[in-house]
Amino acid sequence: MTVLPPPTIELRNISKQFGTVRALDAVSARFQSGRVHALLGENGAGKSTLVKCLLGYYRADAGETIVDGRRVAISHPAEAHALGLGMVYQHFTLVPQMTVAENFVLGRGKIPLVVKWKDEQDQLRSFMAGMPFRLDPQRKVSTLAAGEKQKLEILKQLYLGRRFLVLDEPTSVLTPAEADEVLGEMRNLANASKLTVVLITHKFREVEQFAQDVTVLRGGKLAGSVDQKDASKETLATMMFGGGTAEKSRVAKPAAVADGVPYLKIHELIADGDRGTPVLNGVSIDVRPGEIVGVAGVSGNGQKELVEVLAGQRATTSGSILVDRQAFSGTRSEIKRAGVALISEEPLANSAVRTLSVMENLALRQFDEKPLSLAKFFLNRSRLAPFARDLIQRYKVRASSPFVRLDTLSGGNVQRVVLARELSRDVKLLIVQNPCFGLDASAATNIRQQIVDARDRGAAVLLVSEDLDEILEISDRILVLSEGTVSFETSRANAEVYEIGRHMAGAHAA
Amino acid sequence: MTEAGELGWWGVLFAIFAGAIRVSTPYLLVSLGETITEKSGRTNLGLEGTLVLGAMCAFATSVITGSPWLGVLAAGVAGASLGLLHALICNLPRVNDIAVGIALFLLGVGLAFYFGKPFIEPRATMLTGISLGFWSDHPAIRSGLEVNPLFFLGLLLAIFLQWSLINTKWGLYLRMAGESEDAARAVGRSVQSVRTYATVFGGFISGLGGASLSLFYPGNWNEGLSSGQGLMAIALVIFARWNPVRCFYASLLFGGASAIGPALQSVGINQGYYLINAAPYVFTLGLLIYSSSASYRLAGAPSELSLSR
Ligand SMILES: Nc1ncnc2c1ncn2[C@@H]1O[C@H](COP(=O)(O)OP(=O)(O)OP(=O)(O)O)[C@@H](O)[C@H]1O
Ligand SMILES: [Mg+2]
User: Fold this and answer.
1) Which of A404, A425, A446 is the last residue of a domain?
2) How many domains does chain A have?
3) Which ligand is nearest to the CA of A415?
4) Where do the H-state alpha helices sit in A67-211?
């Protein structure tokens, strides 16, 4: 570890254009050495683009970068790395088919011709012993849950000795306790003058607790830079959304007590994870029409597998799933008959086709039905565009046109496309996993409202989420999934955060 | 093919075994070449062309210089050149590696036939086999165990590549390029250069397979020499799930299947000779159906391959 203070970086008038979208328009910011700097803004405001220009992942069209008073031209990530700048991207950049240790070594600039794995692993273990979180170096990354992958991304950067670290929404997949742990650790490193941190987040709580400076972007322009101490939530919200257009969080009214026959009945479900060991150990969940059942839990306790089983993507060992009293295995005809909508996490990878246009993605569920299809064979192209435009407007998707490729949209907007597609039909059972992952407050409120509306129209809703606040906000009943079983159940009225948190943490205490 | 004649049914088994070793070498070398190429995230379907061109170059060089090992080298260089061509074309934006592969397949075969015309008649100096049958004085066993030196080269290569994929810098880069272009970009590596090296290297090894055909077994040069072995070797990579050592076993299996026909003929069973000679093709088809699945992605398939995306 060098004794020099970590870098101060100044960005001057950075502009970046993607086709017709002006993602950044002369944005300036100053990231002070040894401080935690929050970067705020709505979905599509240009936060990710700004930091990617800094890190050499994109080439800015105009503007300059000044590191410790020296002008530098960073045109390649390797040049950024040489300067000690690193980034944890919003989308994971790990190699899924490789082990944790291999991913660590690959990030390194210099790799010896022959890698001595035993030494590397020992070194990694001793490095991780001094870190707030650890991972088994021999695990394959594809078997890690989203939360664990995020930890790995951060650990990797620290391991590589980065002294300026950009975190793009690092806590979206972490529980509040884990987030506090991670960000607390970041702040400690900054305070010890070992690290300069840029934190992109949508959570005001994190800004208040961990950031010292705040820069806000709006629509690709700089909306302002302030000291955190001088910025109230209201000022920040005004800067982000421009004059109080932020939607007020409408706390959903609890449903009229839902009784009657469960629409979804999961009974004693047992299923193996990717490593061939049981991950779901007898899960039973009932969801009745007109109620939202929230499944809380720390990532890696079977949430991913539960949703995969419901989606028909994972075989079960035993147990049964009934939807509308009939066995359900996730086939297209069953989904249609029972009116099931399912939205899994990481929609860009799991529920959408990144290379198709926004319009085509929106039509994926209905392209073979009237009115989008003629005679169930031809696409009715003339209906497609208006259909897509209508959904884009109703769900506030920010896309320059319905014809752009889905993967050119910002993270939050991809989420909205998938939700629009799934919720626009007549839905009787809605299964959602982390629906607001990466959304800003106003978008998240909007999405949650859509879920509540679906319930009020009589749908049974299963909400699997790692965001406890979200679960508390809209669920009628709350379950905790821990080590592959439902370890706790409570009604919304009786819910106690402390009690729920204790059961969520149960897995770790053991 | 008479070695099994007087050994009876044991002879048939022995002939299949000896045949497996003899026939498997080109499968092994081409499948290793393709494994390395595919591990980097590209498919080179042109390796049949590489195999045929390699065979021709090896034969011609041996005829002209009298040195079979110079021929082997020439085959490798010819293969590497086709590989380089494939890589350079695929590095251009919006080029599909499958289409380029098919074009190079035709190019390689065409070049070989064109330049190979004058070499159909002459005899070339062959590679000398390594005698593993010294312990027996049975001539059939002795000649059956004259093993192609390139077979051992392939075996060593398979083991070495397997080890390198896990334990060397280049192995890690290769797998990263094949598994996640995003990850490679995030650590600041260019996948194109990795893929270029991999395709050239793969072409070189596959070219050696051609030398094995023309300079050891069957040990001549004509236009029907390969009869699709390069294509079957590519299918074999899928069966071996992109694992070099499994490529070795799979090649032996394929070689064994090809040797059934001649072995049966040697004990005088001639019925269905042509049918039995189709065994390796049927076998390929069967294995591909067996190892594919509607619900799972092939385990081990590099994620960046256009056929698994
Ligand atoms: N590679 C690209 N090609 C075309 N347009 C892009 C590309 N990357 C981003 N954009 C556009 O630039 C704008 C800014 O996107 P960016 O990803 O920086 O937003 P963000 O602030 O990070 O949003 P979020 O909070 O949703 O992640 C968006 O309108 C987006 O659609
Ligand atoms: Mg972003």
Assistant:
1) A425
2) 3
3) 1
4) 77-82, 100-106, 117-129, 146-159, 176-191, 204-210
